[in-house]
Amino acid sequence: MRWTVCITAAALAFSSSQFAFSMDDITKSSLERRAVEATIWSMPAVNTELMRQAFLRAGGQDNQIALWSRLPSWKNQTLTPNPDTVYLIPFFNTKEVGPMVLEVPPADGGSITANIDNVWQVALEDAGPSGADKGKGGKYLILPPGYQGKVSTFDYPHCRRVPMEMPNAMSLRRVSPLHTTMLPGGGSCLRAR
């Protein structure tokens, strides 16, 4: 035990004299670390906005659904696409239209996994096998930030409430079809009320 302490102390003394850092070195290292942290921190929001901008350039609008009708290939420049998955991405903005209902259909033998994310890609609600609907399909009432209006159960029966802290958001839906007839085409909607 005593030898271990002596060897450790000697190693620390040797390494600290060998790697003495100046104040400029420490400042530069700190700035570089902060730049890397800022880049990592902003990646989700930048990725969301780049996907939205690409959708708008392709002729889409807020409160519409982007459908990737084919499986992703190496040309897809999204951060983490699954190669065996069809994606549907509703980009919604509740600022102008108010509350919205997002309907996720049942998987019917396939797999539909969805999450409603804010622009930081933080899941506000999950749908699908691990979500509130347990894969049986469900409706999600998306409320604008600070929404104080009335929401009656008659207008939104069987809807799970999802309050937003900012008006822009997206829902990432992953559909893993068992065969090509399961490709999305009906039963799933995003509508303004």
Note the beta-strand portion: 25-35%
Helical stretch count? 3
CATH-level-2 architecture: Sandwich
- What is the helix/strand order? HHEEHEEEEEEE
CATH topology: Immunoglobulin-like
Q: Major beta sheet, specifics?
A: 5 strands, antiparallel
**Roughly how much helix do the residues carry, as a percent range?**
25-40%
* Cα end-to-end separation: 73 Å
Q: CATH superfamily name? A: Domain of unknown function DUF1254
**Poorly predicted parts:** 178-193
Q: What value does the Rg take, in angstroms?
A: 24 Å
**What count of domains describes the coordinates?**
1
Give the strand line-up of the largest sheet: 1-2-8-4-5
- Please give the CATH class: Mainly Beta
Mean pLDDT: 78
Secondary structure class reads: alpha+beta
What is the number of E strands?
Answer: 9
Shape field: elongated
Summarize this entry quickly:
The protein is α+β, with helices and mostly antiparallel strands and 193 residues long. The chain has a single domain, classed as Sandwich (Immunoglobulin-like).
